[in-house]
Amino acid sequence: MIKGIKFSCVESGIKAKGLDLGLVLFEEEMNCFSAYTRNRVKAAHIHYNMKQSMDRVKALLVNSGCANACTGMDGIKDLRDISHVLSNELGIEKNQVLFSSTGVIGKRLPKEIIKRAIPKLINNLHEENIEGFARAIMTTDTYPKIVKFNFKGKKEYTIIGVAKGAGMINPLFATMLVFLFTDYPAIPKDLSRYFKRSVKETFERISVDGECSTNDTVLFFTKKGQKDETGLNAFKESVFRAMKELSLMVVKDGEGATKIIHIFVKGAKNKAVAEKIARRIAISPLSKTAFFGCDPNWGRFIAAAGDAGVPFNPDRTEIILEGRTLVKNGVEVPFDEADLKKLMDNKEIELTLHLHEGNASFDMYTTDLTYDYIKVNASYRS
Amino acid sequence: MIKGIKFSCVESGIKAKGLDLGLVLFEEEMNCFSAYTRNRVKAAHIHYNMKQSMDRVKALLVNSGCANACTGMDGIKDLRDISHVLSNELGIEKNQVLFSSTGVIGKRLPKEIIKRAIPKLINNLHEENIEGFARAIMTTDTYPKIVKFNFKGKKEYTIIGVAKGAGMINPLFATMLVFLFTDYPAIPKDLSRYFKRSVKETFERISVDGECSTNDTVLFFTKKGQKDETGLNAFKESVFRAMKELSLMVVKDGEGATKIIHIFVKGAKNKAVAEKIARRIAISPLSKTAFFGCDPNWGRFIAAAGDAGVPFNPDRTEIILEGRTLVKNGVEVPFDEADLKKLMDNKEIELTLHLHEGNASFDMYTTDLTYDYIKVNASYRS
What is the pTM of this model? Predict the structure, then answer.
């Protein structure tokens, strides 16, 4: 727990069943770092948050069960309306509230239901209630995703992170919502580049189905106050570690996933080439079904690489799967197929493509593509 | 049938079972138009064919069961070897033979098996044997894909087309092989732009799983001889019609597909924007599972559009599914969900996104994403 940061959750009725509304209240005004989806279609909470001042935040309200995306100006007005009621009840200013949503696209927030739930939500606030909050933002995540650890500066600090991952409600988008909290005094103007880079190196290196949500949000709340340079390195390491651990939790709990695949592209002319090839393999349905089927059908990986839209000479490519070399100079070398199939049954698999054309590399994580992905996503919403 | 063009097929043993080798013999030297995969990893037959002269072709040998891709120089030498034997037996020149392959990537052609099959293959040659040839190039296609019709110039001409589509053998790549034949005298230097454009507007407007094969090939064989300007328009129309019909057969027979979706993007600022959005929706797993599940979950279509990497204002977007308007100015309008679900059960569905930002448009065809796609592709090759 972090002194002065309280969490709460209720079953408000946005969803047919289960916790669906979470609140965070900050005793002191906080700084907030933010990163949002790159999708051109952005949920109302993103448009709304981007207009608030991010250096005196006192509350965060998050709902599951409704994405509040593609709801036009009305969707933003709904948030204004709710912030009015919530800030009144909390005795804070209207523009000190931030929002996040996840759920079905195109439906308005059930405003009255939310407003009615506010008194109970405030009543439930507690410094130890992070798990309840983590559960309130879940959709079909199979477990709440929380990280928490301490690091040292002039004094001991805590960082807590919570995420909801690639799950569907009835069904909806695989939105990723991530919230991080610390009592370390971090100043956005000094550290926003570090924050952005950490997001890029963690949450932007996972893929479940290659879809980009309208609601993806990362908010990081830090205390205000005097700098603590002594703790700076420990702080940075902790931020990165919290993000990395949460991002792995998200991909591991991907829709229908039975395993995660760590894709490593090495020996590229430059990082952009390595990244494009890694990302192309990460979304390749034929590669992902091969992982599900434990089939060392490496032709699918190299064909996906060849379709990445970047230049490389496939005649130099080496392919290594779970430490076994399958391909050298672009052609197959003898390998024990039965052994490989067994290794591919592991919960975590490592695939390396070495291009032998330079020194740049890129790595990321993806899931397999399974019957359950179809099941989760092909069922009716209603 | 076309006089002077003979087809043949045998069960040579490349596959464990079934026809796997097809031959076409041209009595006269033919012109050949060609288009190949854009994948940077290209099968041996593509490298080989690109070095042959394309204005005096006398034979085409096609095998299924082995892609002969990622086989390095050896894969090309194998073809040289086979062309030596085949041309000798046929009494033609070595460089008058073209090849195509489809099958598992990374395995060498079983050269001796193929050579042994040549006498029987030659023995089976017959002008009426197009269906046998079409069957020999199938993998898990569920039916042979043939089009045939006549058109008029100074005399009556015939065009015959044959394709193998998005099927897997055990499993392998969803390679598309297409061969067209006509007795109309078409000169490549006059008509190669028309050929390329027709390929682009037909075969490049279908998608099953967004994967780009190492082996994709379109070869069009035309007679040499005196021009027939009278028949030029009829010829052009026939070429386009043959390609269009074959491309629709390929997408309809896509792996695991239960329906095809005609995606129309209209009102775009320019064609590139319309094309990128259409292609992004066509490969969106969440859109494709919604089609499978008959779920009018339009948020998935607009979110895919928003992730296409091109600018548009989602607040102007109109979405029409099977003639019913779901969205106007980016927000939902009331629609009958039960009615929509029933309409989405059709074998062919039309989805239109109207951006209301200009006059450019683009349309293409895709399939739904189903349990059977996973089944076909997650099973072991062996």
Answer: 0.86
